[in-house]
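Question (not urgent): is this output format expected?
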Amino acid sequence: MQFSGFRILKEGLAGNRGWKPHWRKPDPKPDYDMLIIGGGGHGLATAYYLAKNHGLTNIAVLEKGYLGGGNIGRNTTIVRANYFLPGNSEFYSHSLKLWEGLEDELNYNVMHSQRGLINLFHSDGQRDAFARRGNAMLAQGDDAILLDREGVRAILPYLDFEQARFPIYGGLYHKRGGTARHDAVAWGYARGADQRGVDLIENCEVTGISVESGRVTGVSTTRGEIRARKVGIVTAGRTSQVAAMAGLRLPIESHILQAFVTEGLKPCIDHVISFGMGHFYISQSDKGGLVFGGDLDFYPSYAARGNLPGVEQVMEAGMALMPMIGRAKVLRSWGGIMDMTPDGSPIIDRTPIEGLYLDAGWCYGGFKAVPASGWCMAHLMATDQPHPVARRYRLDRFATGHLLDEEGKGSQHNLH
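Got this back:
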């Protein structure tokens, strides 16, 4: 099924009775070449690129609930490539390039909007840090513009520039940054993978991973035993629990990150804005709601809900940055389970068990990484070699000390 403006108009006039399901509902087969555990954005993208880039079709994605029901539907939808360190910089640059062609690639409207992202700074030290980051972005081939206070005021006149505690000194403007519709990303990759023969199996929870003589042989699920030569763990905040089924202990803690959305408002925020002194970020959705979030709830948890101190921190930062939002009503909030690594950077690597692969540790960067994560994980599983842009995302870096500490906060999960 192909989408076009003519098809949408035709279906609208005909009562939308001609649409067909976007993917099949197959029963699991007893044997596959490859299994992907996790039907979120990363897992679906991995399956899609395994089929498209490597011609592999005897693949199944196993999802314990419904496709897209995890972190891919529990985030603030930000897409950017403004990383500083070698290793992260080239990876997220590659991801942004994939984002820019994703709708044509999938023939699916993921509502990718390059509205621009502005990271504000509030001190001389922050200005210097963002100047270095901007130069690193330009060296990588991405875009960056360092704005002074008046430059920011010309674009974002509604901010509180004169507040006593955190006056705005300027900002780093990343024009190619923006947002995308999280659900549509999952649906687009699911549809594309299904069209290429991948089995997408919902309501199929993995309850065990079978290992014989140091090699993975398959998984146990709530829908029976499934054999496979290769298995990929792509389960975000549940990574540690799933890996433990194979006897692995990983350098990952799971924390909750809350997000919020207000009632629909007239268009008032045209960009994505990040507050440099409160880890607060905000944008406006296509339906008019203000979408925003802040720091983690600073304790490990697997509960997909947050705590009230976290709510207070986010609201306080939002009001300090732009008091105009104070009268907006918050309609709902949600919590995503974040798989946090000690250095705040992800893992895409083989595990010590032959045939078992890991895509995890996305911390705050999971949504924006979806295309490149799937691309690189598919390359790893198909060739047993790391993709060049993900070569630094090794699991053993935590043993050797070759960390990618993007924020410079040390080996503390809760600070990343």
